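Dear all,

This email documents one entry for the complex benchmark we are building for the journal club exercise. For each entry we list the sequence lines for every component of the assembly. Then comes the predicted three-dimensional structure of the complex as a token string, followed by one or two observations. Please use this as the template for your own entries, and keep the labels exactly as they appear.
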Amino acid sequence: MANSLPSSVKVSPPPIEMERPALVENNRSIGWISDTVAGVIENKTPGWWKITIGLSMLVSLGLPIGLIYLISTGVGVWGLNHPVAWGWAIVNFVWWIGIGHAGTLISAILFLLRQKWRTSINRASEAMTIFAVMCAGIFPAVHVGRIWFDWWLFPLPNANSIWPQFRSPLLWDVFAVSTYFTVSVLFWYMGLIPDLATMRDRFRKVASKVIEPAAKFRNKIAQFLYGLFSLGWTGSNRHWRNYEKAYLLLAGLSTPLVLSVHSIVSFDFAVSQLPGWHTTIFPPYFVAGAVFGGFAMVMTLMIPLVSLYKGLDEIVTVRHLEVMSKVILVTGSIVGYAYGMEFFIAYYGGNPYELYAFKNRAFGDMNWSYWWMISCNVLAPQFFWFKWCRTTPWFIWVICGFVNIGMWMERFVIVVTSLHNDFMPGNWGYYSPSWVDMMTYFGTFGFFMTLFLLFCRLLPLIAISEVKGVTPQADPHHPMGGAKH
Amino acid sequence: MDSLDDYQIPYGVMAEFDTPADAMHAAEKVRDAGFERWDVHTPFPVHGMDEAMGLGNSKVGWFTFCCGLCGFFGGMLMIWFMNAYDYGIPVGGKPNFSPFASFPVAYEMTILSGAFGSLFGMLFLNRLPRLHHPLLKNMRFADVTHDKFFVVIEADDPKYEEDEIRALLKKAGSKHIELVTE
């Protein structure tokens, strides 16, 4: 551009207050980026990591205990009964799958919108997506009761010659969630290929300096595994060309996918006839809620990680946290609007059962869950109007904790309060979870954290090649990238 | 061992550069010199390098499109076969097959096959996985995933002439040029 102008025309640089802060602070070299991110894998295992993974594995034991007891005995061991036949299992399923959505939003939608700041958090959030969907998938699989018939959900030929019923939203969900998991894994793995090659080459470079036999063996294993999964990547520009196109296409495919997944999850409710569930606002409201809750989980995980690993705070900066806080504020406000609109339609729609369901949510037996939801989801994010609140990591972390709780409460409100008092007072009841419900749910936390900690230790938790690509040193038209004008 | 080296087949000439701009200008010179079998290796995709190398648009999109289309019609066909043809489920006198009720599943199948098409199409076009490559044996080349940029001209190129290539790359500003063997 500057070349095409005649030399008499002077283009002044933008005023200083218009310039965006660098994405990687302190003008670090591109080599520093790989050293810092790979350092997380190469350095000695930190003490806090050992303690946290120990605790996580301990907590994850709740999952096999809860599930084995459930499967060997029957769904009666949960708190479910007439009239509340969908309890914590469905609440947890929707909560976990919603968390996953932030990862895809960051990796796909923000990519299409050319939001370069996403590069420093997309790898970890995509990992979060995959692990969250794994936790989510457990619940619908076991809540069917006789889990040995789960395979009937898939279009497989069977002895009864009966196929799945494709008009059921519950079956759409099977396809949506399994597609979502598969595509998230493909997208994540494709992003990992160049970084796995970085790890392969780093272990190869130090191989001759490793003397101790155990370390030599570890080095060999690392070279072999990183080498195998990097598929022989050489950073060839002819490869990058196809790679970038495939990345763009996967982002383009994941965007409608992520919107469809939570829409289809909301169809599980919206397609039914139950007051409180039978609502057309559900698809957009569920998607906004998913992004809202997911971003909160991203920050819940990233803020401690960034402070524990040296150097990462220069890649995931306060600016990143501030931008994510703004996303939380926006999506939280969309969710708040949806809560208000639901009430308005319940009043304006003229259906007495619908109006009753909503009055019952706010002032009935289970009003505690409704007001928890409102305080955590609508009120708590309002702090993010203030700059101090958006730029203080510990404060953001606390607010995100509330958002995580609030989004769980939202699904509890939708699932349980709509069921517990339905059309006839003869069908009214209360719902309390059993210890098995609780053990299974807390077990998924342990399972999730175990997987996430292993990911941090074994794979580059920041997309090295993508972060390099957004620095000025990587731009051949920038003086820092070697341009001579 | 020394005698074996004499029999090694050259793979190509590799030139190292320190900045993306240097590598890009070198690529422009190599392109203008009319080489065909050559490549630039970088730690991240460098913007403008495709033009500097004279490469056109990538063909991955065709794989995505064809696979996505197959996924959509495959999904519709599957549902029609299962719920309307092989074992019809009549509900309230409505037609056994409805494209609207089948849409969510066919839509997910489109995305699923499109995603497989994109990843495997990319790998196919790049001829990956390739677990052995002459460049990957070179220790200096290991910095390609770190912070160095390499221009490699293969010995297969019809215009391959080692001394001329060395002179060209030296003029382009490379401080380290070496011959890589198979």
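Observations: The domain at 45-156+166-468 of chain A is CATH 1.20.1630.10 (Formate dehydrogenase/DMSO reductase fold). Chain A has 16 helices and no strands.
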